[in-house]
Fold these 2 entries.
Entry 1:
Amino acid sequence: MTTQPRRRPRVLIVGAGFAGYQTARELSRTLRGRAEIVLLNPTDYFLYLPLLPQVAAGVLEPRRVTVSLPGTLRHVRLVLGEAGRVDLEARKVHFTDPEGTEGELGYDRLVLAVGSVSKLLPIPGVAENATGFRGLPEALYLRDHVTRQVELAASAADPAECTSRCTFVVVGAGYTGTEVAAHGKMFTDALVRKHPAWPKDVRPRWMLLDVADRVLPGLDRRLSDTADQVLRSRGVDVRMGTSVKESTSRGVLLDSGEFVETRSLIWCVGVRPDPLVSQLGLPVERGRLVVTPQLEVPGRPGVFACGDAAAVPDLHRPGEFTPMTAQHASRQGKVAARNVAASLGVGDPAPYRHSDLGFAVDLGGVKAAANPLGVPLSGIVAGAVTRGYHLAAMPGNRVRVAADWLLDAALPRQAVQLGLVRSWQVPLDTASPELAKTGPGPREE
Ligand SMILES: Cc1cc2nc3c(=O)[nH]c(=O)nc-3n(C[C@H](O)[C@H](O)[C@H](O)COP(=O)(O)OP(=O)(O)OC[C@H]3O[C@@H](n4cnc5c(N)ncnc54)[C@H](O)[C@@H]3O)c2cc1C
């Protein structure tokens, strides 16, 4: 009589961002081959999102902020694909691979870590005219677009066209919008300084708008004050308590009634959970999947969620949920791994608890606003702490990132457009990227 070898249980992790990457890494350490760990993600890399503004501003080359999944996650099987449907009864995830082939993966434990997408507000013209800032394609597109506007402005015969082309409007003064505006202003100033035909009386104008009363509204007020001061001293037009009423191909109408002529509306108003979450038919809180403090979906044993996609109870602030940040996502990934392992008989489960480690906002050059462990820092010290923090937090590429920073400090930035990403490939509504799949319309650049 032959006995069938016992199949190892399979843990399927969907999404390899901050949460999914940490889950996979911790599980491969703790389970040591006792389960098959499968990671389903559309790309073969982990994207370090906090350094994306530096890619858009030409400080870092795009590959620096990507960390190879197969190269850094030993004992984890990577499946390239995007989950389209989760069958919770049959315990299967249906996906489409990058070449359009459909497949399915069964699981014994499921970790949903699909993150978030850009949040689109119902403002006329925004979906058609704004650029989002959520991934590598957007950063590459923005770098080219900004370079192109400066070059076209330099050769424009009409002064009004020149002004419009070198006006850049960023909406949303959270950490993303603040960093994009801070780095963007430095980038365009550097571009025009080098340009032989640049009109002397014109300076690139960057505006940062938000309905909130201060920049970085969700963070410690001292960080807001530092960021505000750096932005204004650099010449960024900071307009708080202001929003966009309408956007056209020629400019934006502010709610104050002012019309700003621009070809560049950069939309950083925040994010909402990945649309896969709403398709599950499970309880959500502001679009995020409701989970227990152990990160398990109530009533669905073996199904876990973490990161931006999950509404994780904040045990330090009863009744509230942890914010969508990389710090929370990474640490939740570790807790999800621990609890998945416990459900397979390895170790004990634990709830997600956190202590505030502070926040770091890179403002370009040597400037930053940071409050590590609650200690407010500004200027060059904050700059050094922020860069050190990013190097420590990145799971790879540290030497390459540091080398790019050194080169950027020593050499002029390279200003060329590669044209690899076109506007139709970065639709603002990333929840429905049909346009990106079908190609450009008649007037798309
Ligand atoms: C420009 C920018 C700057 C930021 N800066 C900071 C910062 O300085 N500090 C900070 O704390 N936070 C920052 N954040 C927020 C932080 O990056 C997010 O909170 C964090 O990435 C959330 O991690 P996550 O793992 O939940 O999602 P993500 O990191 O977004 O990862 C989700 C993963 O799931 C994959 N995925 C999505 N849908 C599917 C699907 N259907 N099937 C398979 N895979 C899928 C995605 O491709 C991705 O790899 C920033 C965000 C942005 C956009």
Entry 2:
Amino acid sequence: MSAVEKAAASDDAIVTIAHVSKFFGPLKALNNVSLSIQPGTVQCIIGPSGSGKSTLLRCINQLEKIDEGAISVDGALIGYRRVGETLHELTDAEIAQQRLSTGMVFQRFNLFNHMTALQNIIEGPLTVLRRPRKEIVAEAMALLERVGLADKRDSYPSELSGGQQQRVAIARALAMRPKLMLFDEPTSALDPELVGEVLNVMRDLAATGMTMIVVTHELGFAREVASDVVFMDKGEIVEQGPPQTVLVAPSQPRTRDFIAAVLK
Ligand SMILES: Nc1ncnc2c1ncn2[C@@H]1O[C@H](COP(=O)(O)OP(=O)(O)OP(=O)(O)O)[C@@H](O)[C@H]1O
Ligand SMILES: [Mg+2]
């Protein structure tokens, strides 16, 4: 086993990112990123546009392939299987199977527009997990209740506000019973008055012990909910630590400048 793999498989972290680099042509979007996330914690990631935040989430969720390093999720190296001394790339079907343990919520809600809120939520459990309809409808209703939208079960996305659509998107991701939830700027496309309702759902989710990785510019939320904060710039982790340190008294000038710019 390589040192990188050992790091990726070590300790009790639910996500281990070990020396990961990612290129887009000549551009190094991620440069030797290492990060370990413990189960039940909330990892917030902040940083300027183009710093690699989305790319990092997309690599964890295998929407992008990494060029160097290793990532493990829930004890399994992602994208590869080791047979003796060699690593074999997983097939698309195997990757799809691995991706089921991770839920992702995007900036734009990405709901199926021709389906109601309830249909959006049951689609994955029904067609991918092939679970019994009756059971998953009951679960979906409980999820709609949890995100405060029980009365919107039969509404189409076009009939919902942005905040409501995003809450349905969170319920839809949870319906797959993920072990890990990734959020990529889930509130940045919302009108300011709708941000709070989505952050409240995320706060509740964190309180249930869900492991979450959250890219956000909502520094108030990060201060309150994050277990740990990472500041990224130019594909690298510049600073990492508890929210009270990174967000309140950062040690790096780049972090300080970024936070001052966001708070302006
Ligand atoms: N598919 C792609 N092809 C080529 N370059 C890409 C691709 N995806 C991202 N990049 C580049 O990689 C770098 C990191 O992008 P990324 O989307 O991860 O940044 P980000 O921190 O999420 O920024 P933002 O805050 O604007 O969402 C950027 O320079 C971006 O232009
Ligand atoms: Mg992004």
